[in-house]
Amino acid sequence: YGFECVNLGNGRDPWPTAQLDAIERASAAICRAHGWSARSVIGHSEWSAAKIDPRGFTMPSMRTRVTTRLAAPAKPPTKPTKPTQPSKPSKPTQPTKPSNPTVPTTPRYQPFPGATFFTARPSSPVITAMGRR
């Protein structure tokens, strides 16, 4: 398993408390589901010499947090509350006129170029259009 956490990765971008808590909770949940210990929680830099992240917190500190969470019994899910009565819908507004169906619309994205595109040196207006976005 793995999940990505948004951070600049420069060691100066702060990790919000809520984000660290989410990493801890998600990691503990996966460990608990598989009967693993916190030793199964690793960072990119511990897996590959080509990776430098995470930066700004240490994996040993995160494993300590996960160990603490795993030591506590799992909290049972909360019982959902009964839904409230929906509010009355507002009065309908005047409908807008439909657009002219005879006018073709321009697709938002370029069409898929097909399997022939995947070559060693692709050259395509699709790539050019992507570069201009």
Walkthrough of the structure:
This protein has 133 residues and is mainly α. It contains four helices and no strands. It has a domain of 55 residues. The chain is flat. The mean pLDDT is 83.
| Approximate strand percentage | under 5%
- Count of DSSP E strands? 0
Count of helix runs: 4
The largest β sheet comes out as:
none
Low-confidence spans: none
Q: Tell me the overall shape.
A: flat
State the share of residues found in helices, binned by percent.
25-40%
Mean pLDDT: 83
Query: Which structural class should the secondary elements be placed in?
Result: mainly alpha
Using only C-alpha atoms, the radius of gyration works out to 25 Å
> What are the secondary-structure elements, in order, as H or E?
HHHH
Q: How far do the termini sit from each other?
A: 33 Å
Summarize the structure.
The chain has 133 residues and is mainly α. It is 32% helix and 0% strand. It has a domain at 17-71.
Tags for this model:
4 helices, 133 residues, single chain, mainly alpha
SSE blueprint and pairings:
Elements: H1 17-34, H2 44-47, H3 59-71, H4 125-132
Helix pairs in contact: 1-3
